[in-house]
Specification:
This protein is mainly alpha-helical and 104 residues long. It has one domain. The chain is built from four helices and two strands. The protein has a two-stranded antiparallel ribbon with strand order 1-2. A hairpin with a 2-residue loop joins strand 1 and strand 2. It is rod-shaped and about 75 Å long.
């Protein structure tokens, strides 16, 4: 996520550099401004997708939590086993080192 923020900042900086210092409304380096604007658009699109994915993940986590709460009411032992298996699956498929690299 930090790389995305850095990329957006760089694109904004390039657009600013493409402007005429004497008249900031005037663009003197058209090609640079267009390329930076296109890059900025792609970065913003990625940020939007990441936000959407994060929302889906939060919804899924709430679903799992509510299901575990219902299972807990019926059988605390079954709830513990389900939670343990979910943890094992997570650690097998997404080791902690991998998850740390993707923390937003």
């Amino acid at each position: 996520m930090q790389e995305l923020r850095d990329s957006i900042a760089l694109a904004k900086q390039l657009v600013d550099q493409a402007r005429d210092p004497a008249d900031p409304k005037r663009i003197r380096l058209i090609r640079q401004a267009l390329m930076a604007s296109e890059h900025l658009g792609k970065c913003l699109e990625r940020a939007g997708r990441l936000s959407w994915i994060a929302g889906d993940i939060n919804s899924f986590e709430r679903l799992i939590q509510s299901n575990l709460e219902e299972i807990q009411k019926e059988s605390p032992e079954v709830a513990r086993r389900v939670l343990r298996r979910l943890g094992e699956w997570l650690n097998t498929n997404y080791p902690i080192e991998e998850r740390r690299r993707h923390v937003v």
